[in-house]
Every structure is written in C-alpha cells, then in structure tokens.
Amino acid sequence: MHGVKPSRWTMAYFGVALISLLAAEAAIAGGALSGVGGVSGPVALATVHLVTLGWLTTLMLGALQQFAPVIAMRTLDSQAAALVALILIVAGLAAMEDGFLQMGGGAASWLLPAGGAVAVAGLVTAATNVALTLLKARPLPFHARFVAAGLAFLALTMLLGLTFAFADAGSGTPLADRLVAFGLPIHMAVGIGGWLTLTAMGVSYKLLAMFTLSPEERGRPGEATLWLSAGGLGLAIVTSLVAVLAGWQGGTADALEVVGGLAAATGVGVFLWDMRRLYRARKRRQLELSASCGVLALVGFGVAAALSLAAFLHPAFPLVKGAAAGMLFLWLGGLGLTQLYKIVPFLTWIERFGPRLGQGPVPRVQDLVAERRTRPFFLLYFAAAAALVTGVATTAAPLAEGAAAFMFVATAGIAMELARVRFGQPAAKDLDRSA
Amino acid sequence: MAFTESAVETALRDVFDPELGQNIIDLGLVYGITVDAKTGKVGIVMTMTTPGCPAESYITDGIRHRLSIMDGIAEVDVRVVWSPPWTPEMMSEEIRGYFGF
Q: How many structural domains does chain B have?
C-alpha cells in the first residue's frame, strides 16, 4: 500500500457548500425566516434546505470522500461517481429551491419532487461511493462506525424528504399525508441529529485527535458515545415513526421516545466529556486556529444539545427553532468552517507542492495560511451564530437577521482566506526550507 | 564516491511532514537507514504519523528525489511499515519542546 490518493472532487464539493452557506446567510439576513408563512413558508423552507443540503450535506460528503479513504487505507471507490453525484446534487438542489419558492403555485408543483428525486440520486451515488470505500476496511474501525450510522440516517432522511415532496405535489397516499402532517420533526431529527451530527462526531474524533496529537483510541467512552447517541436516537425515531404511521399512542410509546431521547442526550454528554479529555491529553500544546476554534464548535454543540433536550421534553416552537439553529450554525456549521481551514490548505499543499517535495524549496501547510488575519472572522462567526440562535429562540427577528448579516461577513472573510490559500502564492520567506 | 548513513540522515532532514511542518528525521518517522556504498543502494524503513495518510506517496517520493541527487547513490528503496506505530514520544527532544511537551 502506497498511501491513498486525495479525492479529486472534494474541493468542488467545498466550493458548492460555501456558496450555499453564503446564500442562506444572506437570505436569513433579508428576513427569510420571518417572511410569509414563517419558518414553514416557501422562502424559509428554501433557505433551510440551502443550509442542510447545499451547505452541510455537500460539505460532509466532500469531506467523507477524503476521510473514508484515510480510514480504509484505500483510494475512493470511484472518482467519476463523486463528480456525477455532485452534478446531480447541485441540479436537484437548484430545482428544489425553485420548487420551494413556487410551493402551492399549481403548475410548477412537479419541480419539488423532481428536484428532490435528482438530489436523492446524487446523494445515493455519493453515499454509496463512500460506503463501498469503507466496506474495504471491515471490520469497521471505531470512527467508521459513526459514519456508517450517519449514512443509514441519511437514507431515512432522503426517504422522508421525498415522501413530503411527492405528497405536496398531490401524489401522496393516506400514510404519506399523515407523515406530512406530523413527520416534520422526525425529518429534522433524522437529518440533523442522525446523519449530520453522528457523522460529524466520528469525523471529529479522528481529525481533532490527528490535529492535536492526541490518542485516537477512545476506549469505553468512545463506544458509549456511539451506542448511546446512535441507539438512543434510533429508538426515539423508530418509535415516533410507528406512532405517526400506525397511530400508536399511549404510555409505552411516550416512554420509549423519552428513553431514546435521554439516551441520545447522554451519548452527546459523554462525547463532549471525551472531547475535553482528548484536548487535555494533547501533545500539541500550541493549537492551530482550526483546533482552537473547534473548541467553540464543541461548546456550541453542548448549548444546542441542551436546547434540543429541552425542546424534546417540553415542546415549544421557538425552543425547537432555537435548538435547530444551534445545531446547524453553532455546532455543525462552526465545526465545518473550522475544519475547512485545515483541510483546504492540506489538500492544496498535496496538489501543488507535494510533487515538489525533496526537489527544492517547498512551503509547509502552515505557511499557506494567515491565522492572525483569519482568527477575527472565526470569532465573529461564532459570536454572530450565538446571537442568531438567541434571536430565533426568543422570536426576536431583528436580532436573528442582524446576526445573520454578521455571519455572512464572517463567512465571506473565511471563504476569501481559503481562496487565497487555494489560488495565491506563498510568501518567498516561506520557501527557504527543504532541499 | 562513498556516502554514509550520517550523510543520508542529514539529507533526509530536507524532507518534512506537511501537516506537522517538521522534518521526518526529527519527527522520528525514520526507523532505519542502511547504505551499501559499493552498490550505491540505500534502504529506508519508515512510518507515517497516521495510516492512510494522503501525503505518504509525496513523502516517499520526496525521499527518493532528495537522495537521488547525492553522489554515489544508484538506488533508493523506501519501505513504509506500521509496526511499531508512530507516537509523538518518538520526536526528538527539540521538536517535542517546539510542540510543548
């Protein structure tokens, strides 16, 4: 085995993801969440899917195309499939956005299910590509089992989403209509909690241990995190689905949902405690920006998880919205942006400078970034995201919209720094090392 | 012209791990160097900081490039092993100090 080749299309996935995030932040700043229909209105739904599908899912799939080969010690199963998947996801998302914006308009109602079907085809292609790569590493290592659980939840998320889209277009069944009426919280929990969060937890365990020089072996706390969070969430979701579809109500169903939710919350608690243990055991005392700001994402995860648990036990719509915003922007978005600041320079180094190693002056990965210049953008992002969550949870629309504007500025700043890494030239002073 | 293990080791300090930004000798990634001055063959046994590292082929190619320009070296064999696994404690004292432990 001679190392693994970097995924050819990961950077393109990251580009689509960042553009989607910027568009979503601009839309929220312009009142997308408080416009006609509120958070269930067409513009809000279009914006939410820009965040969940355009930004986070595309980012995660792009990262997994790099991450799965590292775990499996095998090159990605198919580079061509990665490109086809991206094209389908972008085309499907574009049609879905149009479909959401024309919801209820009659003539264009086919756009949403058609776009959803195309996007799902792309997601299935990308997920299968990652899964086939991981299967070469059987028995699945610790980190890969989080990803495998995440991919299973992604399949359920897609199934539910497609059901909603076809039902909205008038081709639903009575069961589908019940899902549309009561299943939105399940769709959110499966997508945000199952697919995105479980996968992010597995990726965090691997990447943050590597980048901080901490032990990757997590022992019983790591196993407890996986089983409690994935098992608990699975129990709560299956119970909720059966309750909605079969009309199962009563003490047993409620009890199973609560047990599942509490188990998942305990799993998150163990994960955060274990992450604290990981950081404290690190050999790299002077943290790089990606790892130091990664702490803010983990703190955000704690806040968002607490809000989610409160919303689960005492459902109140603002609390549910605040919990979702916390998960999407503080935890997943924050983690995504911070890790992009490590992965993009690393992949850029591999492509541009790796082949020159040993043949002359070559910069290090650290020479490609300007941490001092970028740090304020990350601090602004997390402060603004916290303000956004507060605004959403307290139904203070001006606060949420103002915060989104600052998030846009911060994200644009980080994106410009990444573009400079990608396309700029390192300073001459950084080229005086190596042969 | 004869070359020595010491000369090879010095040359390998020009090859670095891109993520950690330090040379592979001081990081403790090189487990063994063998030289045969008569045949011009050099053997390197080394590891990476993590299995599956995407930089592996660039580092091993970098070693070949760097050593191939040394007088007397005709062949470079780089073998990557995973046992014993690399740990940060294998770094030189100076690099450990740089990272703060």
A: 1
